Amino acid sequence: MAGLLCGTKKKKQVSDLHEEGKNAINAPMLPTGTGIHPEDTLLEENAERIMLDPTSRENLKFKDLLKVLIDWINSELEEDRIIVKDLEEDCYDGQVLQKLFEKLSGRKLNVAEVTQSEIGQKQKLQTVLEAVNDLLRPHGWSIEWSVDSIHSKNLVAIVYLLVALAMHFQAPIRLPEHVSVQVVVVKKREGILQTAVVTKELTSTTEMMMGRFERDAFDTLLDHAPDKLNVVKTSLITFVNKHLNKLNLEVTELESQFADGVYLILLMGLLEDYFVPLYNFFLTPESFEQKVHNVAFAFELMQDGGLRKPKARPEDVVNLNLKSTLRVLYNLFTNYKNSE
């Protein structure tokens, strides 16, 4: 009899929980067709859960953002033989985030390499996110993620985190502009589930996103000493022509003549004294993508030569961004100015 009563009680609890979930799904403020399961809304008192609206998941710009982030992570972690296919499934346990942060920051975190248990995964996430937050918060970042949100596979929180890292470390990628999604916020107050739909802005304009980066000498130069800019440009032009003239090439304008990446690649070959096979790049690039490929390849050659990864993005050089081009060329100048 006692066993029967216990079983009946458990069934009633499960029934009540599912009824509570159904009530939340049918609440007036919840949009139709969200496809949320009742168990997703089982919350403790005063708890809150945020879920991505399925309609936003199908948004083309949001899909594009996910692809850009996945390609970027795979590019960064290629040497670690890590391949990310799904941000929710591959980032929630902290392993990928740990490796990505270590690669970007050059800092080794004191965490276990492999963690199978939920407790171990959350401990790793805690360590990783503390390091990320300590790095980003002083620069004015709003922390839109937590251990629980990442571990519960909250895609919006994961994307917020990755976008912040990409922007802070000036990832050589082009983040889609004005990407917003709708999320369903479910809260439990006095035993009643309350729902609301909130719009979350994941990216803004490229200019505003780039504005978060620390200013350097070239920002100051262009803003406060434009008269000295020509002196710097003349010095850089003299430097690059000293080497490009060996191939009967000459530069007269920095912004446009380096924008397709060809001269950058040839210049690196001259500076490092090797021939770059023509099949590795587009000698006469026509599309934006081909130009970005060339500049990115030039950046790889720079890193192979022992230079630090350029802070500029290939896309910015292709888009004739003067400061980005100056940063790249000045980096070459400081490292090879005494080269013959």
TrEMBL record:
Keywords: Actin-binding, Cell adhesion, Cytoplasm, Cytoskeleton, Repeat. SMART domains: CH (SM00033). Pfam families: CH (PF00307). It is found in: Cytoplasm, Cytoskeleton; Cytoplasm, Myofibril, Sarcomere, Z line. InterPro entries: CH_dom (IPR001715), CH_dom_sf (IPR036872), Parvin (IPR028433). GO terms for molecular function: actin binding. One of its GO terms (cellular component) is focal adhesion. Gene3D superfamilies: Calponin-like domain. It comes from the Eukaryota. GO terms for biological process: actin cytoskeleton organization; establishment or maintenance of cell polarity regulating cell shape; lamellipodium assembly; substrate adhesion-dependent cell spreading. Residues 63-170, 230-337 form the Calponin-homology (CH) domain. Belongs to the parvin family. This is Parvin, beta. It comes from Mastacembelus armatus. The lineage of its organism: Eukaryota, Metazoa, Chordata, Craniata, Vertebrata.
